[in-house]
Amino acid sequence: MARKLSIMDSGWLMMETRETPMHVGGLALFTIPEDAPADYMESMYRYLVKVDGICRPFSQKIQSHLPLRMDAAWVEDENFDIDYHVRHSALPRPGRVRELLALVSRLHAQRLDPSRPLWECYLIEGIEGNRFALYTKMHHSMVDGMAGMHLMQSRMAKSADEGIPAPWSGEWDANKPKRSPGEKVKASVRQGFSNVSKGTGQLVDLLRQPKDGNVKTIYRAPKTQLNRRVTGARRFAAQSWSLPRIKAAAKKHNGTVNDIFLAMCGGALRRYLLSLDSLPDEALVAQVPVALRSADQASEGGNAITTVQVSLGTHLDTPEARLAAIQDSMKSVKGRLGDMQKAEIDVYTLLTNVPLSLGQITGLSGRVSPMFNLVISNVPGPKETLYLNGAEMQATYPVSLVLHGYALNITVVSYKDSLEFGVIGCRDTLPHIQRFLDYFEESLSELE
């Protein structure tokens, strides 16, 4: 039975072009066990493809007949080809992380085939240090970035000896608890009007805020180098930072891990734009996604996030002043979201995302004033060590997307005692994106 996409999920299909593929991904690094046989990587590939059926959302493709996919719906792919979706490749020697990130940059720039289920997975061997990687990408209409990370991580083992099926195996559908028919309650018409009114009111109140304050909303961002048109070329950079180290900095400044993370981003962006002689006098504004569902709901598919706008204090010279501006901005955001009901947040989210979609579809994005400067995400991840068919996961890096007018994305995911940074940008619009890794370190050091 066909399942129609929501307005937000359909929007990602409508916005997609050759220059702006609308998928999100993840790069996980694994250690090959010391006692692994010579054919270990071949057996790992067999584990990924020799599955008993395919579970949702991996088994579903888009069905559409109208222009812009306005009638898009999910249907089961009756001719599913696992060998197309799961691919085995290798890096040339010496297989440095540098070559791995270059490969992921190229793979992430390629659009998914719209006639098939919108995901692909690459098993990559030949990485120095007796390691291999798994790069997976899924279309944003299929799952949002936070849910995609949770979905993959929730289907990994907690020990090397635990035997669980591959993440897309049909066995996951068989073990999934069924939702009772009465669990979902429809809101009344009166309640619906109330939610629209309150959600609209929240947006109007924010738009009335002084532009030079720390309270931000859409259209409160200066136009920068980040806010130009993009090409289809991508560059991906990734690195891990010690979570205890960041927590110590947070304690020093009476803040949170997220405060320090945003301050690292603010400091890095200031340094980057200064190096290009293009730092604006106004603070950059980050669009920050906030998850609206728990990790165990990720397999339901689709998008369940809202977004808030946060000042990054990039116009301020000192790290203490930038951090204070970020904390003030976040305090306002948390208070406003805390006062809203889920249905009101849904309306607010729709109202703030429609201009983004229209800007991409009409080609105005990157030519007019930006709604914000970039997207920055912080995805909470597992605290325990995870394993894939006996191989220990060393690190997991998020690989997000960029849009016309929004050429840079910074996302982190926590894993055990690390924060794993993933930075992706348009290769042609933003030069030397890899410098952000040095700038993050410098920004953290000055906060320390």
Automatic annotation (TrEMBL):
Family affiliation: Belongs to the long-chain O-acyltransferase family.
GO MF annotations in UniProt: diacylglycerol O-acyltransferase activity
Protein name: diacylglycerol O-acyltransferase
Keyword line: Acyltransferase, Glycerol metabolism, Lipid biosynthesis, Lipid metabolism, Transferase
Membrane-spanning parts: none
Domain (O-acyltransferase WSD1-like N-terminal) ranges: 5-260
Catalyzed reactions: an acyl-CoA + a 1,2-diacyl-sn-glycerol = a triacyl-sn-glycerol + CoA
Domain of life: Bacteria
Pathway participation: Lipid metabolism; Glycerolipid metabolism; triacylglycerol biosynthesis
InterPro entries, sorted: Acyl_transf_WS/DGAT (IPR014292), O-acyltransferase_WSD1-like (IPR045034), O-acyltransferase_WSD1_C (IPR009721), O-acyltransferase_WSD1_N (IPR004255)
Gene3D superfamilies xref list: Nonribosomal peptide synthetase, condensation domain
Gene Ontology annotations for the cellular component aspect, listed alphabetically: plasma membrane
EC number: 2.3.1.20
GO biological process: biological process involved in interaction with host; glycerol metabolic process; response to hypoxia; response to nitric oxide; triglyceride biosynthetic process
